[in-house]
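Now for my pick.
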Amino acid sequence: RARPPHAAMKFAKTIAALFGVLLVLGAAVPVVRADDAEVDAPAVNHKDKAFKEGAEQHEFQAEVSRLMDIIINSLYSNKDIFLRELISNGSDSLDKIRFLALTDESLLGVGDDANLEIRIKVDHDKKILTIRDRGVGMTKKDLKENLGTIAKSGTSAFLEQMQKGGDMSLIGQFGVGFYSVYLVADFVEVRSKHNDEDTQWIWESKADGAFAISPDDGEPLGRGVEINIYLKEEAQEYLDEDKLKELVGKYSEFINFPIYLWQSSEVEEEVPVDEVVEGEEDDDEDADASDDDEEDSAAADDDDEDASVEDDDDDDADEDEDEDKPKTKKVKKTVWDWELLNDSKAIWLRNAADVEEDEYAKFFKALSKSEDAPLSYTHFKAEGDVEFKSILFIPEKAPADMFDNYYNKASALKLYVRRVFISDEFDELLPKYLSFIKGIVDSDTLPLNVSRETLQQHTSLKTIKKKLVRKALDMIRRLAEEGEDDDDEDADADAESAEDAAEKADDKADDEDSKYDTFWKSFGKAIKLGIIEDASNRTRLAKLMRFYTSKSPEKLVSLEQYVERMKPGQKSIYYLAGESREALEKSPFLERLLAKDLEVIYFTDPIDEYTMQNLTEFDEFKFSNASKEDLKFGDTDDKEKARNKKLKEQFKDFTRWWKDVLPADEVESVKISNRLVTTPCSVVTSKYGWSANMERIMKAQALSDESRLSYMKGKKTLEINPRHPIIKALKERAADDADDEETKTLAKVMFETAMLESGFTFEEPAGFASRLFDMVRSNMGVSKDDKVDDIDDDVEDEPEPEAEDGAAAADDVEEDVADEPAEAKDEL
């Protein structure tokens, strides 16, 4: 009998589902791409590629042939530069058409031709890399002259550099950068279309001494140049899109025109749910349902059949409701599109007033490959004999290896010429001590024939360096002045209530240190190195120094602040160097200085000793080391001078006696001290010798020179405090009996103790220890004749037991052992 309408509908769905299964299974069969079949496919050999039939052939100029021969046979490892040079050439071509369009806008054309851009595409099957620009293009004459018979001085200059062992990465600076393509190419095609000609031309060469030019019947370019590079077998890495992205990011990130790469990516999209699985389930259900229907229809009566029809109508209604609801799912799909590679804009070309703060931060992060914002920056344009634009940044943190291999480390500046990256290894752009500064320098007037070998002698680079150093130091100075402004605000707050001022100070301390405090903790050592190395900027660098003092033990101050609060009549800037601030605060060298309320600078960095050897004065005030002889306070009057003269006369015989007692090769003299208050004596060095701290530093050097150590250490001067009771007592004993050995020992021990307290060490510490123990022995009333007990005398011998008792004891032990269990016997 006739099949009900709903059954016919289910049957149609079943057929559709089966058809869908077949389609999906066919689509699921993997398509074998050329990339996947590389193993079985024969290797592409471009060396046998021939010129187009009927092409006009020419011979390369002799110099060009020599140049290409050098490049083709070069073992130069950095072949990446070819991409930089071709993109740079494309950028120049785009610059030209944009300039011409200023007077004739029609030259740009319409549609895609008006888009000034560079596009890069890879053909994995044919092993071809294509670089396309919409620049001014080349006529047939241009192709012949510019690519085949160059008669410019640049080629000769580059050949001369290469013969001298020059660096091939400079090829673009000689105007012959195009030929770097033969570092990676077996065959090159240059397709070109110029507005002045209706014909599109193709230039071909396999670098065998000849090239060919012919009309191009390929895809119309509209305007510009397309370079097809047939890659060598060993240069297949340049078919990798990720490799190309890396190179563009490194060399051409800030080219003034967009650079696009034909790139694949996976995207997720919503698609209708595949009915295959659902169809299979419906098919099974329909099959079961049809069997049941046939059985039911054969066995049931008309009433049952009517009931079945009603049920089927309900099912159809449910299915209609389900069909009304769209069913979708997310699937991954591979799509190909042009991806912009150089989205970082060359913000240094813009006016500094037009650049936002967050743009500088974003640019710094891209430049430094870090997530931290810069501590400070300066954006400027230099004009004059050499014009360039630059942005310099101070990072917030110093790199961990900042002072590793210090004198061989390149600066962190990148040099661009017309927005094309040239190198980041020009040491001459900034001095070593400013190597922590990051940034870029972009010059439009830098001569193109500058090589690393002649860089130091080139006046243009010297001028750039001078301006960069001045701008860098000005940037650091402004950062320091911001910190001083904060200090002034704190000083003004003192006029407010003590409670409010304390709260503000606590809030500020809780927030963070000033920016310059952060800078000094990270890069203070570099500034000190600059004082040593850069004599021409020594005064500027001295103003950037920060340190703790006796009046400011917790807050860093500058030399200018120190000078502002100097005492009237003070003629020197006093400082003391040592291991730690705590040790310096307890030094006997500071007693008189602190008593006179004179401020003393604390230096605790080992490099400070070297720095102060080069920094002898500031603002017409001499530096005075508190640990060296002839310390002057600048406030001595005639009365005090007379008193000191009288003291020297009174102690003349005593100081002469004391000097004779001490080793002649160690002690230069014994003098009356004007710096001691509570300490009996101290040891100082001559004005031009090493201080105790410097001796300690030099002895710690792994490659220190013993002969230089002995020369620079020099002899010491013992300064005594004539008002101290110990000195007075020793003077009396020396006057009573100058030859008394005990008195001489006391004098030696006092000198050696003063050596220790002053920061020096002994050549023979055993002698000092022996004399010190003798004094302790004498003080404790122990006679010198008392000997040290022998080892056998340490423990008194116990009396031996009588024989009978001993025998009985032995028997008792044997009985006890016999009574113990076997385990205990084993232990015994």
User: Anything to note?
Assistant: The mean pLDDT is 78. The chain has 26 helices and 22 strands. The longest helix spans residues 459-493. The CA atoms of residues 158 and 164 lie 10 Å apart.
